[in-house]
Design brief:
six-stranded antiparallel beta sheet; five-stranded mixed β-barrel; alpha/beta; 11 helices; 30 strands
Length: 464
């Protein structure tokens, strides 16, 4: 039987669902509609170890989230810079040529929602024979409205299990989209593809000469890093960024489309997330500590603090611990303009929240001011931070849960709950969790500078 390998593309800048989604923690890594993240749901659709292509900032979170659902990734490939979907797909295909040159790779964005997974599996069953017969297969979503936020695919001649693709169409204006939907000949472009590895690379070489060779150079000059594979920075950065649609699918004469209704959404806006969420009798989608009085049609979400809404209609209100968004639901596509404005002002809220993810766990900034910062630190069982020192700050540690193994200068000792220690500036130190439960502590930093870049790593298990 032909080998089927899921390939998950986990890029994204995290702008359209700001402030919940940020560049350093984009929407695929968040629990938006249930108990699992979009990445986890994507990986579980086939339930076999995937190849994941992601950026360097997300690598540890990606690996950990897959392990949480019992999937050890087949490979995690790190892109030094984003170059769109065609180079990412090419890298995955080239890696698979060593083990499964005749396999089929199911290329999936990590941030899409599929509500009817059995329908997706049924469409996949129709797509596999087409791919085995020499087709690059895309999945077309039966449109439910004249949406101008999606690309469209026009069906051509009928095939056994699908259709030839007559043409791909970029995002249309409303009048054009209305004619597409009324004709019944068009589907939305889902961005999900079933691609024979060898055929895809052949078509890539034919229609985007040089891209496959450049991607191969990035692999050949790359290196293994723990359980990741890092593409070579210089070689990959030299590749022109192109989407797989533009580089191959729109130009190839070997493309087929399988139409499917599977409760699909790319969750591309707050209104799309409202549409996919459970709602009360007034049409409000509510998450977190929210009180809504005489309000309707709203998406109201809090990550901690109480949000009270009175007499409002069709609003999006998102409260995180460092930002609050209030927007007309009909204008939620303009949220990215907020992010752009914040970036111009050099505001950290544009790209990061108060929680920072690390290979050993996470930290969250609780409070900061002139010459001080307070953090909540979570260290996973068995994990440890690098042996390090800071030139400009001292640290006070108070253990609130678990057991800490502390190195401070020439001394190593254990701290338990309600015990504390002091780390002077310039002193080599390390924090470890030798226990079987998460270690949590409060860290108070004080000194002339408390930025994250005041760190000298002396030993590090994570190659940083």
């Amino acid at each position: 039987m032909t080998t089927l390998i899921p390939v998950i593309l986990s890029g994204g800048a995290g702008t359209r669902l700001w402030p919940l989604s940020r560049e350093l923690m984009p929407k695929q890594l968040l629990k938006l509609t249930g108990e699992r993240t979009l990445l986890q749901d994507t990986a579980l659709r086939l339930g076999v170890p995937p190849v994941v292509v992601c950026n360097v900032e997300h690598r540890f979170v990606v690996a950990e989230q897959l392990r949480e659902v019992g999937l050890e990734p087949r490979a995690v490939v790190i892109e030094p810079v984003g170059r769109n979907t065609a180079p990412a797909a090419a890298v995955a295909a080239l890696i698979l040529t060593d083990s499964d040159p005749d396999g089929l790779m199911l290329l999936m964005p990590s941030d899409h929602l599929i509500g009817d997974v059995p329908a997706f599996h049924k469409a996949l069953e129709s797509a596999i024979p087409l791919a085995e017969a020499g087709r690059l297969v895309t999945f077309g979503i039966q449109p439910t409205n004249p949406n101008t936020g999606y690309g469209y695919i026009k069906r051509g001649k009928a095939l056994d299990g699908g259709f030839e693709v007559e043409r791909f169409v970029e995002k249309p204006d409303l009048a054009t989209a209305e004619t597409y939907v009324a004709s019944g000949d068009y589907t939305w472009n889902s961005g999900i593809f079933l691609l024979p590895v060898r055929l895809f690379l052949d078509e890539l070489s034919r229609h985007a000469p040089g891209m496959a060779e450049s991607c191969k150079a990035a692999i050949d000059q790359g290196r293994s890093d723990l359980f990741f594979f890092r593409l070579d920075d210089k070689a990959f950065a030299a590749i022109a960024g192109q989407s797989i649609d533009y580089a191959v699918m729109e130009k190839s004469d070997k493309v087929a489309v399988v139409p499917v209704e599977m409760g699909w959404s790319d969750i591309g806006s707050w209104s799309a997330l409202w549409q996919e969420s459970g709602r009360d009798l007034d049409g409000n989608a509510i998450q977190g500590d929210v009180l809504a009085l005489e309000s309707s049609g709203c998406y109201l979400r809090s990550q901690g603090r109480l949000v009270a809404a009175v007499g409002v209609k069709d609003l999006v209100v998102i409260a995180t611990d460092d930002a609050v968004l209030v927007a007309d639901k009909a204008r939620d596509q303009e949220v990215k303009a907020v992010v752009e404005a914040l970036k111009r002002e050099g505001r950290p809220e544009a790209t990061q929240g108060t929680r920072g993810w690390r290979p050993w766990g996470w930290y969250q900034t609780v409070e900061q001011g002139e010459r001080f910062k307070v953090k909540h630190i979570h260290v996973d069982p068995g994990a440890k931070l690098s042996l390090q020192k800071h030139w400009h700050r001292s640290e006070h540690w108070v253990v609130v849960r678990g057991t800490a193994l502390v190195t401070c200068g020439d001394n190593t000792f254990v701290l338990r709950e309600n015990e504390s220690t002091f780390i002077p500036a310039g002193t080599n130190h390390r924090l470890e969790n030798p226990g079987k439960v998460p270690l949590r502590l409060i860290e108070v930093q004080s000194g002339e500078y408390v930025g994250e870049d005041d760190i000298v790593r002396i030993e590090d298990d994570y190659g940083r």
